[in-house]
Amino acid sequence: MVRSDMERRNDDSMPGYLCVDEFIKDMVAARALTTAFELKLIDFLAFGPPATFDDLKKSVLSTHSGLKLLLKLLVDSGVLETDSDRYLLTPGFSAALEYRDLLLTKLEFSHIAAHDFIDSFSFLTADPLEFMKRAGMFRLFNYGNALENTPENRKQTARWMRITTMLTRYEAPACLSLHNFAQHVRMLDIGGNSGEFALQACRANPELQATVFDLPVVCDIGHDHLRTEPESARIHFVTGNARADDLPAGFDLITFKSMLHDWPDEVVRTLLYKACNALEPGGKLLIFERGPFETGEAGLSYSNIPILLFAHTLRSPDLYIECLEENDFHQIRVQWIDLEMPFFIVTGVKKTDAVLQC
Ligand SMILES: C[S@@+](CC[C@H](N)C(=O)[O-])C[C@H]1O[C@@H](n2cnc3c(N)ncnc32)[C@H](O)[C@@H]1O
Asked: Would the CA dihedral through 162, 167, 173, 179 be positive or negative?
């Protein structure tokens, strides 16, 4: 059950970062906020005292009427308030600005998705495969660009990796709090991207070693992403194609975070069969995914449009449970997590005498 933004804000158990969605609720508010960042109006007010219209006019590159309109939109959406004739950030927006990196990423992601929503929602509704051919979002997430290390491929791949890395930075703690990673010593994160999930797992668990398995350009950028982190000595990248290549062996935990939804059922079966095979007997397999798309009582917010575009790829845990059962796993468990949408964690233990089915 999806809860409204208001219910989430009033729930102390919800992660604080979800407050950013309050400022990406509708397209006009979100676009005005992006403009306020681009014109440095947010920084001017965040780092300085409350400012009059004339103060802002001197510092923000804008026409008189443009600035007037922008300020009105920002007041309407709760980003700014006025005190006498001075503008200042509201307490709610100041709190959201603590998560500036996430806020900017979600704004960018929503604007990219909005173009596809406007241009091709009929295709998304009637013919998802045709939609995927047309949508800029799926050109952006083109894994074909991650196979060969050229400057252009690196630029394209880095663009979508910034988005996945940022979402994972904020989503990972929920998984780390529900699954005890301290019980593991060697973790393999398949489709582990920039290594952000492995980084957080290693940061919280000083004994853990991690291997990130991903496509070549992704691993290369991931290597740079972790370079300055103290945990980087415990995180290794292995390049390969999880569908076609052998997976490295010798792990007591194999994870798939937001990776399996990209693939049709038969590919998921192959990926899970290979992972189950690579796992040490007695080891755990963990799948952390978004659940099926729901709009909730408050309706669809602008910040959810990116997820809407992937809605037809999001499944219930059933297929993953079935695959683990087929591969002779036991202690299979599903835990649901309520973030901006429902997520789930499926875990299972490989029997010490497991006989895997081809
Ligand atoms: C949706 S992203 C999720 C990334 C990361 N796990 C996260 O949650 O942030 C899917 C990941 O799978 C990787 N991937 C796609 N096809 C792959 C393949 N054939 N072999 C290995 N990794 C692959 C992509 O490069 C990408 O990093």
From this structure: negative
Hey, what amino acid is at 275? A
- Strand duo 86-89 + 51-52: pairing: antiparallel
Indicate the domain borders of the chain: 5-101, 167-350
User: What homologous superfamily does CATH list for 167-350?
Assistant: Vaccinia Virus protein VP39 (3.40.50.150)
- Fold classification of 5-101 is Arc Repressor Mutant, subunit A (1.10.10)
Instruction: State the Cα–Cα distance between residues 117 and 115, nearest whole angstrom.
Output: 5
Ligand 1 atom at minimal distance to the Cα of residue 262: 1
Please tell me the residue having the least CA distance from ligand 1 atom 23: 191
Q: Is 171 in the pocket of ligand 1 (CB under 6 A)?
A: no
Q: Which residue, by CA, sits nearest to atom 4 of ligand 1?
A: 193
Specify whether the CB–CB gap between 134 and 202 falls below 8 A.
Answer: no
Of the residues 215, 219, 220, 313, which should be mutated to test ligand 1's pocket, given the most ligand atoms within 8 Å of the CB?
Answer: 215
**What is the residue-level pLDDT of the chain in tens, covering all 358 positions?**
444 555 544 566 688 999 999 999 999 999 999 999 999 999 999 999 999 999 999 988 889 999 999 999 999 999 999 999 999 999 999 999 999 999 999 999 999 999 999 999 999 999 988 999 999 999 999 999 999 999 999 999 999 999 999 999 999 999 999 999 999 999 999 999 999 999 999 999 999 999 999 999 999 999 999 999 999 999 999 999 999 999 999 999 999 999 999 999 999 999 999 999 999 999 999 999 999 987 776 678 999 999 999 888 899 999 999 999 999 999 999 999 989 889 999 999 999 876 655 4
Distance in Å, CA 182 to ligand 1 centroid: 24
Q: Is 176 in contact with 200 (CB distance < 8 Å)?
A: yes
